[in-house]
Amino acid sequence: MKKPALSAWSVWLMPILNWSDMAHSNPPSPKTGASPALEINQLSLRFARQASPILTLPFLAVEPGTILGVAGPSGSGKSSLLYLLTGLLRPSKGSIHWGATDLTALSEGACDAWRRKYVGFIFQDFHLIGELSPLENVLLPAGFHGWHTPASLRKHAASLLDLVGVPANRRSVADLSRGEQQRVAIARALLFDPPILLADEPTASLDNAAAENCADILFANARENNRTLIIVSHDHTVIDRCPRVLQFDKGHLLTENEAA
Ligand SMILES: Nc1ncnc2c1ncn2[C@@H]1O[C@H](COP(=O)(O)OP(=O)(O)OP(=O)(O)O)[C@@H](O)[C@H]1O
C-alpha cells in the first residue's frame, strides 16, 4: 500500500480517525467493548463572537443499544450535537457522560483514546482521501499500520465494501461517484465494530435502493450487536425507521417521539 505524504487532510483526519496511536508497534484492536449509556445535562454550545448558543439541550438519556434519529432543518445544530458527543467539539457548558466517563472532563489525549475505543463516525462530507483506493480508505482507522495491515483485516475491509456495494479494487476514491464515496465512508466507520456509531446524513447521496441497503446494514448492525446508533438524517425513509427521534429547530429540542 502506498503511503501518502502528510498534508492538510492528515492534520484534520488524524485525531478523527484515531491515528494518535500510530507510534505504537501493533495495530489498534477492534472496539469490542459494550455500548455505554449516554447522559447529557445542561448542554450548551456557543462559538466565539456569537451572542447566543447555537445548541442547547437540558437533558437527554440514551440506553445502550438504542437507535436514535436526529432530525431538523438545516442549521438546527444536528451535526454540532454529533461532534459534541464524540468530543470533537467541546461544549461551552454542561456534561456528556458515556457510562461513567464525563467526556467534557477528559484531556484531548484521553478523549482521543476514548474515541478510539468506542466510536465510529460517518461524516456528512465523508472525509475520504481522494488519492487512495476504497480499500485503503476503509483501512484508514488502522492508522499508518494500514500500510502493513494483517490479511484478515484487509479481508474484513473488502467484505464491508462488498456489503455496501463498492468494488474494493477501484484505483482511487476520487474517481468514484458521490454515492459510492458515501458508501466507502459507511464501510470505514464499521471497520472496528464500534459500540457507538454516529452517522451524519449517511444516505444523503444515495439513490433509494442504495439508501435502503445502507440503512438496513446500519440498523441490523445496531440491533444484532446491541450497538448504539445515533443517526442524523433529512431522509424520512431513515428517520421513520428509528424507534426514537429527536426533532431539533434553531438549536433547541422541539419534540421527542418514541415508538410505543
Ligand atoms: N465553527 C463554527 N463557528 C460558528 N458557527 C458555526 C460553526 N459550526 C457550525 N456553526 C453554526 O451552527 C449552526 C448549526 O450548525 P450544524 O452544522 O450543527 O447544523 P445542522 O443541523 O447539522 O445543519 P445541516 O442539516 O445543514 O447539516 C449553524 O447556524 C452553523 O452556521
Automatic annotation (TrEMBL):
Where does the record place a coiled coil?
A: none
Give the matching InterPro entries. Answer: AAA+_ATPase (IPR003593), ABC_transporter-like_ATP-bd (IPR003439), ABC_transpr_LolD-like (IPR015854), P-loop_NTPase (IPR027417)
Which Pfam families did the record assign?
A: ABC_tran
* Keywords for the protein's UniProt record, in alphabetical order: ATP-binding, Nucleotide-binding
Domain ABC transporter intervals:
40-259
Query: What SMART domains does the database record attribute to this sequence?
Result: AAA
The record's annotation in Gene3D superfamilies points to: P-loop containing nucleotide triphosphate hydrolases
| Family to which the UniProt record says this protein belongs | Belongs to the ABC transporter superfamily.
What is the protein name stated in its UniProt record? ABC transporter domain-containing protein
| Source species | Thalassospira marina
